[in-house]
Amino acid sequence: EQLGVGDNPWLWMSAVCWIYGRQLHLARKVPIGLINTNWGGSYIEDWSSDEALAKCDSSQVGGIGDCHPGMGHTCPAQLWNAMVVPLLRITIRGAVWYQGESNVMRPAKYACQLGAMLTSWRSSWNKASQGETAADFAFGVVQISAVLAGDDTRAGGGPLAYALLRWYQTAATGALPTPALPNTFLAVTHDLGDAASPYGSVHMRYKQDIAMRLALAARRHAYDENVSIGPLLREAVTKASGEVLLSFDGLGASGLSLPPMHVEPAHQANWSGISPFELCTSPNGSAPTMACAQGALLAGGDLFVANMSVAAASALCLANSSCAGFTLRAAECSQQSEGRVYFKRRHVGANGDAAWRAYTKEVPCSLESKLAGWAPPASVQLVASGKALLLRAAEGNVRPIACRHAWRAYPCEHMGCGVYGKADGGLMVPPSPFYVKL
């Protein structure tokens, strides 16, 4: 029977999944079976079991009858039950995961959620298949792609969150696999910008680039082939001269290359386009340190610095009549935090009534820093036969204390992110976005 265009089952097949399978078939010379299960606009909570949700405190949103995936709210465990559980008796070799934009408002939670979901899938598949599916089956992750999302100086749920999500997609280490998540692999996609995509920039049309990088990573980590998959940051150190040396693994004989950056002026969003790297320096040349202590009233009594837990600060304000109108908006202070909780008194209303507002001071060079303290390096130089990069700060006599790479929602246009390594088959791949303290 002739199928109409609207009935063509291939219209529902993932292009990345199909090309990925084809690349594995060509390399391994064996048949590759593919199962495509997806739902556009869904959250990672939707694909997580109750066990995985509990590990990361992912609460239920919506109830039966009003929870519909892709409609702007999460449906925890619904797609797990509907689109994964029916497949658990099938013996599989591995899975690949391409998702993230729906969770970009909560990037810091993603590392826990991805690891918990992955672990749950593995144990459930192994049990349901009576051991036919390995308990550590291969699991590949595609990083969230380049996204045109406006002004990159916004934090929280703004476009900076896209860079943070890419970071947390790699279990906050900059690369998969990790000791906590063995037999996992990663495909880097931040350099495949497609501003003209009719499907939106997050759905760019360069599916072959994604799938070929994913297949190479699978061959390396899932099939133990000795193939080069592209540069992986090994270490970053500050030299006595103040320069920063970045060393990489995973490089072929040709090492790294530094082609020109390709950043359209309309898409820069405070991104210079000179280099995909940024260095951050502290005014006194050392990283600021802060610990939780007691609060204090500063001169004039207009700024209350609460170096205490948010709960304690909230209780104090509620007990203090001068805190009328106080609104709590800051994260809890802890010994590991890099900021203080501030309560600033503002005069509001016609009668000049006083109210307290809370915010968290941004510490330069932190993971969540927007632009404070960050600047492109004055130069980026290939050293060590192309296996390392030497970055020099724009200002003299300063000591960089942090370095980051491609830390933008939309770092560049297609294949234009300024630093690449040659993988097997001549495939050019950039390093994964990273943030490191020096």
Fold and architecture overview:
This protein is of the alpha+beta class and 438 residues long. It is 18% helix and 19% strand. The protein has seven helices and 18 strands. It has helices at residues 15-28, 50-55, 78-84, 110-128, 160-169, 207-221, 310-319, and strands at residues 94-98, 138-142, 184-187, 232-238, 244-249, 256-257, 277-281, 296-297, 303-306, 341-348, 353-360, 374-375, 379-383, 388-392, 400-405, 420-422, 428-429, 434-437. Strands 4-5-14-13 form a four-stranded antiparallel sheet, with no helix packed on it. The radius of gyration is 24 Å and the shape is globular. It starts with 14 loop residues before the first helix and ends with a strand. The relative contact order is 0.14. Residues 1-5, 61-65, 284-308 and 317-361 have low confidence and may be disordered.
